[in-house]
Amino acid sequence: MSGLLGYGSCYDAMHEADLLILLGTDFPYDQFLPADVRTAQVDLDPSHLGRRTRLDLAVVGDAGETVRGLLPLVDAKKDRKFLDEMRRKHVKSLTGVVGAYTKDVEKVTPIHPEYVADILDQEAADDAVFTVDTGMCNVWAARYISPNGKRRVIGSFLHGSMANAMPHAIGAASAEPGRQVVAMSGDGGCRCSSATCSPSRPTTCP
User: Fold this and answer.
1) pTM of the model as a whole
2) Which of 56, 129, 130, 187 is the most exposed place for a label (fewest CB within 10 A)?
């Protein structure tokens, strides 16, 4: 991913590409998009076209239908140099900068939240539903929860509503009672009563 949720390798890939195609995305981090790379955008909503970056081609239409129409016109490339280099950078980020928070930290007090997210990723079911609060829980889920095609991450990605993970988790569990649901909630998702909290410990929850 790019932007605040990314590692940097996607940023490099976009800035070093010959052509950037934005499909049905309105990602808000415009400062991470390249200004001098040929860019095309496809979206059903015309108001999204060119809103984040300048475009060489704007297409109003369904992203899936557009891709299916274009693929027969694209010749497969045999040179994997660019792809392999970007993947190498991605792996380096995961094992280096990101991995620094999750290796040899079992005895660190207090434990890093990144370590908690990494353990959740390892222990959760292959088809688990993760709900994430807006803020750092969102970042930790994006960086440490491994997508596999069966898992799902639910959050307030459009409006950025606070303390959404718990009600999302309740709704997901009610919709699919047999499916594992993991709520990644921050202190905004835990409401304390005056009987259990004191002014000196305003974020302590039972």
Assistant:
1) 0.71
2) 56
